Amino acid sequence: MKDGIAAPGAADPAPLKHDASAGVAPAAALDGVSFTYPGGARPALRRVSFELAAGEMVGVMGATGAGKSTLAKCLNRIVPEFEGGAFAGAVRIGGRRLDGARVCEVAARVGMVFQDFEAQLFSTNVAHEVAFAMEQIGMERAEMARRIRPALEAVGLGGFEHRDPTLLSGGEKQRLAIASVLALRPAVIVLDEPTTDLDPEGKAEIFALIGRLREQGISLVVIEHEAEVLRGADRLLLVREGEIIAEGAPHDLMTRLELLEECGVHPPDLNRVLAALGIAAHAASVDEAEALIRRALPRLGAPPHPLDTPTGPAAQAAAPCGAAAWSTDPAAGAQPLAEMRAVSFNYPGGPLVLDSIDLRIAPGEFVAIIGQNGSGKTTLAKHLVGLLRPATGAVMLNGRDRSAMRPAETAAEAGYVFQNPDHQIFAATVEDEVAFGPRNFNLAPGEIERRCAEALRAVGLENAGGRDPFLLGKGERQRLAVASVLALRPRLLILDEPATGLDYREQRRMMALVAELNRGGIAIVMITHTPWLVAEYASRVVLMRRGRKLYDGGVREFFARDELLASSSFRPPEATELARRFGTVALGPDELAAWLRARA
Amino acid sequence: MPIFLYIERATFIHRLHPTVKVFALFVMFWSVYWVDHPLALLPLAAVMAAAAQITGAWPNFYRLRWLFILVVFFTTLAWMVFYRQGPALINLPLIHLSRASLLFGLGRGLKLAELLATSVLFLSTTKVEEFTAGLARLGVPYRVGFAITLSFRLVPLFIDSALTVVQAQNLRGYDFNRGGPLERVRRYVPVVIPVFMGALRKANSMAMALEARGFGMSRQPTSFIDYPVEAGDLAATAALFALGAVYFIIYYTGYGAISPG
After folding, report:
1. Residue with more model confidence, B3 or B208
2. Domain stop point among A266, A294, A324
3. Could you tell me if B8 lies within 8 Å of chain A, comparing CB atoms?
């Protein structure tokens, strides 16, 4: 054990029933568990059985609604104790059955970290936050004081004791939530999609921490949509419609690409490249994938020198498959649809959030705005639609000063889809929700109807017009939000993290919709943290850092520039990273495989 | 921007025992309640100004300046108009302005400002954990005290969420300021529903996270922070008792009232 984190299970206050038949007990076990939510039409879990050995890390993958979170919640009795519903089967923690135990009684044995990091922090400073759970189980003050510092140091937050949790970054908040669980020294920690809302740096922080927890012998259950982040797990479970349909080591399960996609899981890019080249193997790293490819395709020759410039001959020759071209001034020459001229902005009394930003968006462009949390991405986008007014400088929409435009005129030029679709949905039916915008502009009923039908068709919800929007799935609600903006027929569509919270299948569907709109002539500005979305869909990248534009140019050029990637903490997708080993910059697994095949 | 009003300082007021701070909140409310005359309210305003200076709470007053200005201005104005006592200085069909109505309006405005200021001072110097501890020491069940203090954390989150919803609906061409007063209230339905639904989801997530961290395990959880009672707490309690008593006497003797003449 490191940093004073004691052996798992050190705190043992709950009166759980000992299962004498358990023998050498696993850290956790589900035995034939079935569960149906109150009012649920079908079971969320069906006869699920699995064991988590002491010190083991199990990854649980599956589509939204497959039953992953329900499975995890069984481990600490949130299911069925908190949720209600019909439960059958047995759950054991360290050989003890949890029958009848309350959720709070299990807290010291099974720690749970939720996806929504805002909802799990309750205190005004970091030390209090870590102490909270210990106070609840009645721990002595001296013991709490002994545990707080090691728990914070274990997650890399040593010295943060007096900081306000609300002012931490997303990654820090999530690490704090983990520290507060760690302080109880549970035998098992469950992390339910802990990196969904985090930027790449925040994600890397969490997975580095998960690695350290493994070294400390803590048993872990990690739920994720992205297979590649679970490579380090001992075992993976693939869940579909409440059942574990496949189980195995990462090297077994991660080569079953079609099955993963069918289950709404993003298959590892490296394995997709290998499969496309006919190499039946699993790559645990970019190094391993490179070695496998060089062995299978010896004509590729020795590794080239690293790309020193994207304009160099290797990169130029490498630009494969006619994918997104780049230039140093992408919107130059075209009449810009939107333009920011030397825009600076700060909130009252605060530092500059935007610092002299010049930006031109041409009709039909697809621009990805990237950067760490707090770099100014959303502030920039909000200026384009007039939600914020620049302190200095000007924003032009289609050649007109936006500050002189009426909201109706702005809405026809630029629409904004918020990250959380639930921030706008209120109507009783899907159709009414989409009609809300056009009605605000007093359009004729026939025109409103036409626009609704057109917008719903565009997002694939043409048969859902009469449904209650609150009963739609997250992916459908996200598409509904897009439709309700599309009904205003904007020429520029701004999407704030359009794929967050969606599983891989929903992400692909959402992005196919956005790409289709773009092909139809709508300019897209997409704020995102997700590298593969940038690589596979955008034609231009704007990189923000501390309110300044650090880079504005082609996607391929961006991914070829080491210094930019390093300074922005933005990791390219693994397929792109692998491509660079071969002296090219490919923007997706298929593109790289095609390029390699052509040279093999 | 921080969502809490608490300002981390080590002043005498910050260090007071949480129970004394809760008692101080009560005594200030009590004192404000008993008197109407602006002159009687002024000493309390001076006490609060001194407390704001000592605790460094002025930035919070600045953050909430529009709330103070609007509440005080409209309260003062409304009472000046509707308090119809005393000989009229100006007598119009709806407006009866007298010396008494002027004093009463000013008094009501000052009262509200002082109630608000007391709350701001309390939240500037008291962590929510201290508030919970203070309530518990006064006999309020832990769960009830925690629920009260949790609301202090939730309110700013809901306000933030409401502002986002307003922006989202504005961008779809929605005009919140169309029509008369009733129509304007009705036009907030597209904000209320998403905020309410979001609040329900958030409350559910929080409740789940609370239980998963052991909330409910003990009726009286332990406290990480030790709150010893010190001499300063006793002195402050005595001073607060005296203040409360003085204001009750002012009320009882009629000095705090406004005579219609």
Report:
1. B208
2. A266
3. yes
Instruction: Yes or no: say if A542 and A551 are a contact pair by the CB < 8 Å rule.
Output: yes
CATH number of the structural domain spanning residue A482: 3.40.50.300
Structure tokens at A503: 């599983």
Task: List pLDDT tens digits, range A159-215.
Answer: 999 888 887 877 788 889 999 999 999 999 999 988 877 777 778 888 888 988 888
State the Cα–Cα distance between residues B249 and B17, nearest whole angstrom.
27
Q: What is the 3-state secondary structure (H, E, C) of A256-278?
A: CHHHHHHCCCECCHHHHHHHHCC
Q: Which domain holds residue A165?
A: 53-78+102-266
Cα A115 from Cα A88, distance rounded (Å): 26
Instruction: Confirm whether A327 is domain-assigned.
Output: no
Question: Do B224 and A135 count as a contact with CB atoms less than 8 A apart?
Answer: yes
B174 in contact with A, Cβ within 8 Å: yes
**B215: closest CA among A135, A109, A176?**
A135
- Contact between A542 and A552 under an 8 Å Cβ cutoff? The reply is yes
Give this complex's ipTM.
0.80
Question: Could you write out the three-class secondary structure of B119-184?
Answer: HHHHHHHCCHHHHHHHHHHCCCCHHHHHHHHHHHHHHHHHHHHHHHHHHHHHCCCCCCCCCCHHHH
Backbone angles phi, psi at A56, to 5 degrees: -85, 150
Structural element, H or E, at residue A121: none
Q: How far apart are CA A136 and CA A111, in angstroms?
A: 14
End of a domain among A266, A288, A318? A266
Residue of B nearest to A179 (CA): B213
Nearest CA in chain A to B175: A440
- List CB contacts of B48: < 8 A, sequence separation 6 or more: B28, B114, B117, B118, B121
What angle separates helix A126-136 from helix A170-182, to the nearest 10 degrees?
30
Co-location of A278 and A259 in the same domain:
no
Closest residue to A488, CB basis, from B167, B172, B223? B172
Whole-angstrom distance, CA of residue A498 vs CA of residue A366: 14
